DNA sequence: AAGATGTCCAACCGCTCTGTT
DNA sequence: GAACAGAGCGGTTGGACATCT
């Protein structure tokens, strides 16, 4: 045992800010191979210039296969409100009652959405109408076509929409500590996620520009079939990228994880396209 | 069209909790 | 029981994006 408390990391030697796709791939492939027994030593072992805490946060809040993204259903929001009233800002406790949701996400939703709603008006119904018209949280944009439960991949009826390569409901394994955990793939591939911003290496764009028919419409709420065809293209791109990064493996578990990652990331990239509002053309 | 302002969310910070020696 | 390391938690912030003027 050393003396005094060691800093969690050397701030001058770690990268901070937005995670890159490469970093995500490294982290997810490392955790799939070796698990995350020790967050402190993980970054070095995984070849990441990141603080262990940062890796942990990234994994838990974003890369973890069972993390559910997208809309909070009315039921989920009401659960948050009720639990917050009873136990206060115990976000991790609240998160434990909402499968697939992270404490950070719940906290954000509370601070940016639910708190205001409660303070301005205690009438939930009136506020829901307001939220719907304002399109708050940019996730309501598809609310007309989705029932409150439509965005939930757990709790309600099991969604089994077919996705390219993976399907909702598909099970897969990954390591958590020393034990192998089997998880069911939840719906993370939501059109509304196109709004999420993501920092992308400019070189990646030059590669994307080489892809045919990968053009983002002005309206990100494109028909589902259109998005699916785009996703096929992006899938090809990610396969190429994995090869380039030397992350391609025969290990089926890892491949599944990478698919998960790519499915998360492609939304970021699509969102980026939308943000840039630039047509992608062949060089 | 462009600057100002508002909103949202990923990530960081620092503290507390828990397990280990 | 004390001291420490590592993990977890909750508050806060910075930056990207959206909307307003």
Automatic annotation (TrEMBL):
<keyword id="KW-0677">Repeat</keyword>
<feature type="domain" description="HTH myb-type">
    <location>
        <begin position="11"/>
        <end position="63"/>
    </location>
</feature>
<dbReference type="InterPro" id="IPR009057">
    <property type="entry name" value="Homeodomain-like_sf"/>
</dbReference>
<keyword id="KW-0805">Transcription regulation</keyword>
<protein>
    <submittedName>
        <fullName>Uncharacterized protein</fullName>
    </submittedName>
</protein>
<feature type="compositionally biased region" description="Low complexity">
    <location>
        <begin position="146"/>
        <end position="159"/>
    </location>
</feature>
<keyword id="KW-0804">Transcription</keyword>
<dbReference type="InterPro" id="IPR017930">
    <property type="entry name" value="Myb_dom"/>
</dbReference>
<feature type="region of interest" description="Disordered">
    <location>
        <begin position="120"/>
        <end position="162"/>
    </location>
</feature>
<feature type="domain" description="Myb-like">
    <location>
        <begin position="11"/>
        <end position="63"/>
    </location>
</feature>
<feature type="compositionally biased region" description="Basic and acidic residues">
    <location>
        <begin position="126"/>
        <end position="142"/>
    </location>
</feature>
<feature type="domain" description="HTH myb-type">
    <location>
        <begin position="64"/>
        <end position="118"/>
    </location>
</feature>
<keyword id="KW-0238">DNA-binding</keyword>
<dbReference type="InterPro" id="IPR001005">
    <property type="entry name" value="SANT/Myb"/>
</dbReference>
<feature type="domain" description="Myb-like">
    <location>
        <begin position="64"/>
        <end position="114"/>
    </location>
</feature>
<keyword id="KW-0539">Nucleus</keyword>
<dbReference type="InterPro" id="IPR051953">
    <property type="entry name" value="Plant_SW-associated_TFs"/>
</dbReference>
<dbReference type="Pfam" id="PF00249">
    <property type="entry name" value="Myb_DNA-binding"/>
</dbReference>
